[in-house]
Amino acid sequence: MSMILSASVIRVRDGLPLSASTDYEQSTGMQECRKYFKMLSRKLAQLPDRCTLKTGHYNINFISSLGVSYMMLCTENYPNVLAFSFLDELQKEFITTYNMMKTNTAVRPYCFIEFDNFIQRTKQRYNNPRSLSTKINLSDMQMEIKLRPPYQIPMCELGSANGVTSAFSADCKGAGKISSAHQRLEPATLSGIVAFILSLLCGALNLIRGFHAIESLLQSDGEDLNYIIAFFLGTAACLYQALDCQAHLIHHPEQTTVVGRTA
């Protein structure tokens, strides 16, 4: 059976619950969803203003406006258009009933608990299609959702809280990795090729001069050992520069963009 199970009104900046409906179901799935509610409450400021989180047999939907978020829990088969129409009604009534000054200065949880009466009445109406009197407005909401669909929150964005870790975290981490098989190499530039060749030639020249210096030293022509060391250090420096050029020529991949969340 598709239905709305509970709803909450939460302040965006700090996740303070302002009002909430009373739900009596104590199933394991509902307990998990309450934890997801708390985790989402702490991240509202970082999320778009219309979102959906799928949690197995249940969906959590919410909209945010003027620093307040309206969140609801429903069964997975509850129609999206009805869910967001329900939230839109909560938003309009709350804005009409309470001014922003009161919501911004609230310091204790559930200080607008009397709003629960409206939540319960609206929830009952949306759970009973025969008495639902908002069908005439659903076409507007349907068009709005089609043009601007809710952001689907991946489980990994929630992280972990109260010892609950998302089973999808590993998948989400893996999605962010860039496979080296898809990297493509840039064509070598002329200046890079010239720099590579010149570095090799300088290295070879220093190496030859170093061997000549060793021969002179062995023949006791008074060649200073410091000159020999200098030639070999020059050779090492040139070879290092050549290898650096080679690395830029061969292993410089095109930048790959990982598609992430867009608001």
TrEMBL record:
<keyword id="KW-0653">Protein transport</keyword>
<keyword id="KW-0812">Transmembrane</keyword>
<dbReference type="InterPro" id="IPR011012">
    <property type="entry name" value="Longin-like_dom_sf"/>
</dbReference>
<dbReference type="InterPro" id="IPR043546">
    <property type="entry name" value="Sec22a/c"/>
</dbReference>
<keyword id="KW-0472">Membrane</keyword>
<comment type="similarity">
    <text>Belongs to the synaptobrevin family.</text>
</comment>
<protein>
    <submittedName>
        <fullName>Vesicle-trafficking protein SEC22a isoform X2</fullName>
    </submittedName>
</protein>
<dbReference type="Pfam" id="PF13774">
    <property type="entry name" value="Longin"/>
</dbReference>
<comment type="function">
    <text>May be involved in vesicle transport between the ER and the Golgi complex.</text>
</comment>
<dbReference type="Pfam" id="PF25970">
    <property type="entry name" value="SEC22a_C"/>
</dbReference>
<keyword id="KW-0813">Transport</keyword>
<keyword id="KW-0931">ER-Golgi transport</keyword>
<dbReference type="InterPro" id="IPR010908">
    <property type="entry name" value="Longin_dom"/>
</dbReference>
<feature type="domain" description="Longin">
    <location>
        <begin position="8"/>
        <end position="119"/>
    </location>
</feature>
<keyword id="KW-0256">Endoplasmic reticulum</keyword>
<keyword id="KW-1133">Transmembrane helix</keyword>
<dbReference type="InterPro" id="IPR059071">
    <property type="entry name" value="SEC22a-c_C"/>
</dbReference>
